Amino acid sequence: MITLTPAASKAINRFIKATETPVAGLRIFVSGGGCAGLQYGLRLEQDKSADDLEFDVGTGAKLLVDPMSSSMLEGLTVDFVDSLTQTGFKFNNPNVSGACACGQSFTG
After folding, report:
1. Calpha distance 15→71 (Å, rounded)
2. Which end of the chain is more exposed for a tag (fewer CB within 10 A), N or C?
3. pLDDT for 22-80, tens place per residue?
């Protein structure tokens, strides 16, 4: 299960409402990349895949997760930080065994 903080839910809903095209949800996924080997990705999706896991984030907005990423995201907490020094999504993942110095990529 993925947990969203209230700030993350609010940000996701805000991004979905701001788009001009219909959106099925915000996809969160894990892909290869970064200096530690894996990184998180986010993108607005117009269509939901048949095998996607779907999480309701309130007010009709959905979080979509593909089956390959779901095991690496189990127990993930997503927050949204908006401060003078940082703005964006922050991921707290109990499955991570290591991360790069910049905190943008991880190993599983």
Report:
1. 26
2. N
3. 888 889 999 887 777 888 899 999 999 999 999 876 656 688 999 999 988 999 899 99
Whether the Cβ atoms of residue 12 and residue 26 lie closer than 8 Å to each other: yes
The pairs formed by 70-76 with CB atoms below 8 angstroms and a separation of 24 or more are: 71/95, 72/30, 72/38, 72/108, 73/2, 73/28, 73/30, 74/1, 74/2, 75/1, 76/2, 76/3
User: For residue 87, what are its two tokens?
Assistant: 């703005």
3-state secondary structure string, 3-43? EECHHHHHHHHHHHHHCCCCCCEEEEEEEEECCCEEEEEEE
CA 7 centroid distance within chain: 13
